[in-house]
Amino acid sequence: MGKVLVVARREYLAAVATRSFLIGLALMPVLMGGGAVLPRLLTARPDLETKRIVVFDASETSRQSEANEIDGNNQLEPLGRILQQMAEHRNQREIVDESGRPTGPRYEIDLRLVEHLTDALRLEQSDRIRSKEIFCFVELDTRLFDLSQPSASPTTDRTGTGAAFYADGGALSDVRRWFDRAISDAVRERRLQAAGLNPEVVQQANRPVAVEGFGLVERDRDGGIRKAETVDRLSAIFLPMGLMLAMFALLWMTAQPSLESILEEKQLRISEVLLGSIQPIQWMTGKLLGSVLCSLTTLAIYAGAALVVAWYLDYWEKIPWKIVPWFVVYQLLGVTLYSSLFMAVGAAANSTKDAQSLMMPLLIFLLLPMFVWFNVIRDPDSGLAVGLSFYPPATPLLMIVRMMVSSSIPVWQSIGTMLAMLLGTGVCVFAAARIFRIGILSQGHTPSLRELGRWIVSG
Length: 459
What we know:
Elements: H1 2-16, H2 19-44, E1 51-57, H3 60-71, H4 79-94, E2 107-113, H5 119-130, E3 136-140, E4 163-167, H6 174-194, H7 199-205, E5 218-219, E6 225-226, H8 233-267, H9 270-274, H10 280-312, H11 324-348, H12 352-366, H13 368-378, H14 383-389, H15 395-405, H16 411-439, H17 449-458
Parallel strand pairs: 1-2, 1-3
Antiparallel strand pairs: 3-4, 5-6
Helix pairs in contact: 1-10, 4-6, 8-10, 8-11, 8-15, 10-11, 10-16, 11-12, 11-15, 11-16, 13-15, 16-17
């Protein structure tokens, strides 16, 4: 045991007392928080450049409007003019804050009533977009109000029943989303009027009912009943995801140096000297213990900083205290498992290139929780969620996600998953020790997966 502690102490000091460790501590919060801070910075400086848009209206409304103007009975407005009015309402009401300052770009619509749009005219407007003269142009098809035809998209000859939006890389732009909503609202109102229905009455009847989400009612320590707390939908999604990503980053920061340490000692022949006085299993166990101590140091630093920030921002009561002990436990178990897996890869490799090749199939198993976390959030007690919770590489990440979403995780599942991780870690440490012992004698030879399996089994 003394030799194990000596190796653990050496690994801990070698990992903590380095510039890379300090740089990693400083960079990870910046990278993790950049996704939250950067959108706010961009919002603070919004794009205020006016968007000039050309709308070609060939809908039935425009032709009826022209006919009504000739007859002196102007009851229907062209759809394009309604869009102009909606854009002006947006410019005056929706993109101005309380102090009167603009918060978004103005939309200026140049309306053109046409019978149909030719390819030559489309090319002309496309050239105007390329020269930055206009932002986009929109085509309203001739049968836009025909309920017997699909209206999701225009036909290939551009004479279908939908609306076409032309822009340079604007498929996901705010302008595109605004037109999707504005055209749908305007066409819906015209269809209701054509059916003899009052659009305002229909809108009131279709007004959605706001369903407020709550957690579960609990009994407090004094025996009374504590009311359920409201559950925000976005928080229910992004808070578990944030904790999962934070845990994965901590696991990776701690486990990656284990691989590099093993690989360096093999390349420098240090391991050959050490194996004369210590057994491979003792060496691996000591390195694993050093990784755990390094993880505890990192976790303590980040946890302390997070508590200070929460206290300063008055978020103290929102901290999920019941998750904190489980987070620490699963973090330490995850470190032992991930570090043992990385040590096994380092023990089998002879160079950084070999290690990268062996890491590729391993990453597929380690990244599995990233592909199923949303399904776990939607149904934390499903067979998929419970089954993957007992898969050791995914256990720490998915169990934290499940505990954040549900407060009724059975105790046997928590204990069972921890035992599964301890068993998996023991197997990985045993395998890494055997691989390392044989790999020392196989310098210059990169083993295949079949050979690694034979080394583990036969020793």
